[in-house]
């Protein structure tokens, strides 16, 4: 007996595959600074826990497969307040943004169909594409261009007869790049001209630091039913464990597919959706403070990188990640070595090797993704570990 090829083809996550080495390091008493995973340390708003603990139904029952009606309405209100024409029925609640990615791929592609993506990209697009039988067609973005989009010609060159959509993520995980309005317009024009869906993962919409404002796929009404928005409450309200996200589309045919996919998994977690209802009234100051804090963190990491000989990184415009080029030939080996063999004053740092964010073999081997999700003083300590680690790695 052996597992299916499809199952075996689901790649390990570069974000989590070094976890056993981190656990061993901790057992040896080494403090590990986790810059490998986008788990914010910002406290979850109290209102979420208040709503969960005041839940008084006798039975924690299944909910509607499309999500709790007031939550769908609350999410639609959130987009309407941002100025977009979204009806309550345009929103299907998903079990995290993760399920929104899978639903989108399943809904727009048959097995063997293709989706254009821009590498480096959020690594789990790969995993969900394998599950859905979809082939990702990567277009490579270069560090020298700040990972902004290449020319329209380069994008159109990978579109073939089986291409059904283009998936984008802005602000981007793993690069922090925020697509300018003219880049979004190019994608919109290509989607319309080539009859494709434009699937926009906006999990980091509120995490922008002033250089480039965020442009949503919803800002282009000419896309009509070609626009597909994937969203998540995980990062926006620091509720990663609640598993609440959504997929937004004005196309009733797509919504019917989402409903049927949702019916297969019955419902998203009822209690967490109930808690999430309280989050949607949060606005203004909360996001302003969060942005200011993450800007400080970003700047601390960039200062740390600037001090490291041979390290290169561009300042990210959003999200809470930076892709850094390091003076190493194999960042996977270096990241493992940091956990297995290195410590500086009892501490080390955990990073995500860059190659797992690319579909093209061989790319990203001198890159790491750094998630700046810790307080500034811890980030500064982590960057000192990285600095010292690179020096010792070169001498070893
Ligand atoms: C770009 C992007 N999309 C989607 C997700 C999935 O988020 P969740 O399933 O927690 O909502 C993540 C999580 O890190 C992400 O970085």
What do these coordinates show?
The protein is built from 13 helices and twelve strands. It is globular, with a radius of gyration of 21 Å. Strand 3 (114-119), helix 6 (124-132) and strand 4 form a beta-alpha-beta unit. 38% of the residues lie in helices and 15% in strands. It has 396 residues and is α/β, with parallel strands linked by helices. It folds into two domains: 5-43 and 285-395, Aspartate Aminotransferase, domain 1; 46-281, Type I PLP-dependent aspartate aminotransferase-like (Major domain) (Aspartate Aminotransferase, domain 2). Strands 2-8-7-6-5-3-4 form a seven-stranded mixed beta sheet, with helices on both faces. Strands 9-12-11 form a three-stranded antiparallel beta sheet, covered by helices on one side. Strands 1-10 form a two-stranded parallel ribbon. The chain binds pyridoxal-5'-phosphate. The site of pyridoxal-5'-phosphate has 13 residues, from helix 5. Residues 38, 96-98, 122, 169, 173, 201, 203, 232, 234, 240, 245 line the site of pyridoxal-5'-phosphate.
Briefly summarize what is shown.
With 396 residues, the protein is of the alpha/beta class.
